Amino acid sequence: MLSRTAADLYWLSRYFERAENTARMLDVAWNLSLIPFAVNAREEIAAPLVISGSGALYEQCHGEVRIDRVLHFFTLDENNPGSIFHCLRDARENAHAVRGKITAEMWESVNSTWLELREIRELGVDGYGVSEFFDWVKNRSHLFRGATYGTSMRNDAFRFLRLGTFIERADNTARILDVRHLSGAPAGDTAVDFYRWHALLRSVGAYEAYREIHSETINAERVAELLILRPEVPRSLRSCVQQLCELLPAIEGDAGQTAKRLAAVQFARLQYGDLGHIVDTGLHEYLTDFLRRINELADTIREEYLEVV
Amino acid sequence: MRSLSLPEVSGYDEMIQPGGKVRDSYKGYHRWLLGQARDNLVRKRKEAELQFHRVGITFNVYGEENGTERLIPFDALPRVIPARDWRHLEAGAIQRVRALNHFLHDIYHDQAIVRDGRIPAEQIFGNSQYQPCMQDVDLPNQVYSQVSGVDLIRDGEGTWYVLEDNLRTPSGVSYMIENRRMMMRLFPELFAHQSVAPVEHYPSLLLETLQEDSGVAYPTVVLLTPGRFNSAYFEHAFLAQQMGIELVEGADLFVKDGFVYMRTTAGPQRVDVIYRRIDDDYLDPLAFRPDSMLGVPGLLSVYRQGNVVLANAVGTGVGDDKSIYPYVPEMIRFYLDEEPILSNVPTWQCRDPKALDHVLAHLPELVVKEVHGAGGYGMLVGPAASQAEIAAFRDRLKARPDNYIAQPTLSLSTCPIFVDEGIAPRHIDLRPFVLSGKESRLVPGGLTRVAMNAGSLVVNSSQGGGTKDTWVLEDGSC
Q1: Domains and their CATH numbers in chain B
Q2: Which residue range(s) make up the domain with A57?
Q3: Which residues contact A90 (CB under 8 A, 6 or more apart)?
Q4: Which residues of A are less than 8 Å from B49 in CB distance?
Q5: N or C: which end of chain A has fewer CB within 10 A?
Q6: pTM metric for this prediction
Q7: CB pair distance less than 8 Å for A160 and B265
Q8: Residue of B nearest to A252 (CA)
């Protein structure tokens, strides 16, 4: 496969995944900020800025942290390269460049997403409905994933699409967990804890999974275990890295030796990791180290497959 | 849509005879049309538009900042060509392209046609499209134009003429295929009762043609596009996908040790045939425009060594130039020893002082075109122009007469289209695509372009023209 094509496919699914995760993260922040008694609304609404690392850009564009501005910043703001608008536009640009490599149904799902988003922009997120908008983003992402799974050939195009998804998802899950853990750590108030962990689980769609696996009250360590080590949870770090580890060797040709090794090492760390070790290391330190490693892997994939000189 | 009754027509209409009777070729369609509810047709038109937007069959327009992607208007009323007429057109188009390929081979080798005095030397060697670097380069099968678009029109009497030849990077074939798909989706019952000749195998014929030109047993074929901002990018992506080949940009290719390679995720891969949709000037910054970012440095030297095939060849532009067009009938006689099956439109070459005098005296009646122009830019349609426009054009013409040719304003044939009020006639043309490899191939049909505005004669998509499905109907199935 052409390196440029592989890069476009990879970024197409990364941007779409990022849009979905941004919607998930905001949905939770929005809901929490509406619960007056339990939590500090301002802190909740600032959390997405911390998670995405875009606090400085926000301050420069909008100044004071206010819920309507933060919402706008992450949804339709063209100045924010991480906004849902930006991600879906970039995803569509990438898809346009490779429309010959994806099925008609995949292209149509990306293109109609973009066309609908342009209409939504006319209304504004408030006019469309805030929760409705986040649901819409998630549904469009589900649709694209469904079209990909249901119609794409299992070839390198599919593999680069999936690589983009799991690199992005691993990064996003780790960030969400890190920030929620930091802000949630000292509370000790059961009601607040409940809302926080409940919100975190919901934002990654893992609330039902938690209930299925644990009947006890939600606590930080069990949530961390679920989202880091559990192979059954599709957004856990282990699930994401396992996918990367299976995808890379399946790509045709002998390129990517370093990427394959990094993925395999990281997978072993998760597969044979245990909660005690993570707690001893400190969750924040553990996740910081994970983010460094996953980004190293992403850089290596770029050098070995996507931007070959 | 208020009424489905047939409009009055003047001139030659493809569907309706003078006096209002429906032509034989449209009888089946008309029967069906009479059974349609108006609401249903309105709904189908909307569905088609929505579908084209969703699929993203769009057309980029240069110089428009916001609407860089525009939909080409699609009309759901098909243009029907009876099979016996088609056989005539097919033979004529193939004959013409064969002669043009002979001509291109000749002028880049022995130049017999010049030595024989059939075409003035300066018309060829002074032409900006003539590429001296192609002298004595031997091409497989001696084919220069593998993909040729032959633009055909009919005059008020229904006589067919060749309006121009397109031998560089003719586009539009994707619309031919997508229009057919759309019609089959909207009105499947129409195809159940009439035997419309298929066109959807065009991409496989194209791939066969491209492969035939390579000496390699299993050649790697790629399509080279200027990129996603090009007006025909949709078509490039469409054809690459349909043929199952890579769609590459210049930066994806590189030259090493006398061969062309593409950068892939599994390392460099050799490329044997390039179906390029980039003009000569931009192909190779080392040989042509040094500022081109679209091409591949060193490509021409590989090409001249015969280690890669380009389709179409470098230097075909001299064959489809409007100043060469008047000589095509002569080429057919000279190279093939045949009489032309299809006629040229009578043409005045303004470089000839007598012709110029005639043209200047009759500007309001004539169509004047730039010799190297394309896409409907830089032309004057006398009968539709204001006095001021004619005066301005007269100055330009006098300043550079050799830059222009003139033709009578033919009243192009019409074909009805659906409009808000009902059905109305609009002017049309036809571009069939001739494929030349070891043999000549073309699918029965082509791209019918429509001037969507009443009375307009300009069908180019860059000027607001639309398209419709083109049916070649077997006799007896009407």
Answers
A1: 24-197+322-340+410-473 (no CATH), 220-271+273-307 (3.40.50.11290), 346-408 (3.30.1490.270)
A2: 1-151
A3: A11, A15
A4: none
A5: C
A6: 0.81
A7: yes
A8: B266
